[in-house]
Design brief:
With 385 residues, the protein is of the alpha+beta class. Helices cover 51% and strands 11% of the residues.
Length: 385
């Protein structure tokens, strides 16, 4: 997508303008996991990811500034919107803060800087939510609008994950990216989301919330995935929230709620999840609109909740949590899609790579290959074979 840039980039110091011209370096789940295990045993090597983040985070911030100051921004918001202006200023300030830090020499001292940045980043992203809250629902947005927001959110998901990964290694001596049982995460997502809906809509009466059956179609062999647990739980909760809310809306007068099914299957390459509901489905004319960031896909607005400022995931910028869940699923190369039958229900499919997910930035193929090479070079520097 061709991009026309406003004066926001031309007015920043040359060191930040340089960052805006660079491309982000995508990281790989396997490499994060392997190097995390390495530095947990060899603490001095924490200076290697510290040096990477010292250089990489300003690039991701300034890439975000470049997007937000582009005249290609969707028409229902603009670079001159007060909340967007605040985002741009804060991101430029944080980039200046990071570039003003000397080359890291003490992992814990650099971690203190990142704690400061982590808090500010969460608050910065809340300004995007406030900007969306002021939008009257416009006509359906275009594909380019979706790509714009996907790109911005992906960059900032990367900021949070890279910071959280480093802080986990320094503060807790544990990997953020780890091997775990996806069935356990699915059970936790079901219980947490049903409890949340019960408290929010029914004063804590769980009997009024549709039941969710967890089913596995795999063999008895223990199921494992290499991923970020908090990331997966958030994706599952967003999809479950949609199905629970739609089921409740359709059966508001009844007491026997149809069951929702969450099926988990481990393939050779990926872990697949299917959430099936009987909530009347989505009309064909609305199925493309359901991925729009400016549409409200959840009938119960009161189900919108905040996230942990020190957590891994971003606060959802809009009421359409399905669009946000999809960009989260795609972040490491997976996907989220839906097949719906109006008058019956919907099936949501989530696919996540089991081991080799690579950050996706919505680039052209040649650009992605170039950044994959940069990722290999970075991982080689971290002694990863």
């Amino acid at each position: 997508m061709a991009m026309n840039i406003s004066n926001a980039i031309s007015s920043v110091p040359s060191s930040l303008a340089w960052c805006a011209r660079q491309r982000p370096t995508p990281v790989n789940l396997t490499h994060l996991f392997q190097f995390g295990k390495h530095v947990c045993k060899n603490k001095p090597d924490l200076l290697i990811p510290a040096a990477f983040l010292h250089k990489e985070l300003p690039v991701r911030y300034m890439q975000s500034v470049k997007l937000l100051s582009s005249t290609d921004m969707p028409s229902y918001l603009s670079p001159t919107h007060p909340e967007i202006q605040t985002m741009i200023k804060r991101m430029v300030d944080d980039s200046s803060y990071l570039t003003g830090i000397s080359q890291p020499k003490d992992p814990r001292e650099f971690a203190r800087h990142l704690h400061h940045i982590q808090w500010r980043h969460y608050d910065t992203m809340l300004h995007l939510r406030r900007a969306f809250e002021g939008i009257d629902e416009p006509s359906p947005s275009s594909r380019s609008d979706g790509l714009f927001w996907d790109g911005l959110l992906t960059l900032n998901m990367g900021v949070r994950i890279l910071i959280a990964d480093y802080l986990s290694l320094v503060d807790k001596s544990t990997n953020l990216v780890n091997m775990f049982d996806p069935l356990a995460v699915a059970r936790r997502a079901i219980d947490t989301e049903r409890d949340h809906v019960a408290v929010t809509l029914f004063g804590g009466d769980l009997s009024k919330v549709p039941p969710v059956d967890l089913i596995t179609a795999s063999s008895n062999e223990k199921m494992t995935a290499l991923y970020v647990e908090e990331h997966l739980e958030r994706i599952l909760r967003e999809v479950l929230r949609s199905s629970l809310s739609s089921t409740i809306s359709r059966n508001s007068e009844g007491t026997d709620m149809p069951k929702i099914k969450l099926i988990v299957v481990a393939g050779n390459e990926d872990i697949a999840f299917k959430v099936s509901d009987e909530a009347a489905g989505i009309p064909l004319s609305q199925q493309k609109r359901m991925w729009s960031y400016v549409m409200n896909a959840t009938p119960h607005d009161s189900l919108v909740e905040g996230t942990d400022p020190l957590g891994v995931t971003l606060p959802s910028p809009t009421k359409n949590r399905l669009a946000f869940a999809r960009v989260m699923a795609r972040y490491f190369g997976g996907d989220l899609d839906v097949v719906s039958m109006e008058g019956h229900g919907s099936d949501f499919f989530i696919h996540l790579y089991k081991r080799d997910g690579l950050e996706q930035f919505g680039m052209e193929q040649g650009e992605q290959e170039e950044n994959t090479s940069a990722n290999r070079a970075y991982c080689d520097a971290m002694y990863i074979s």
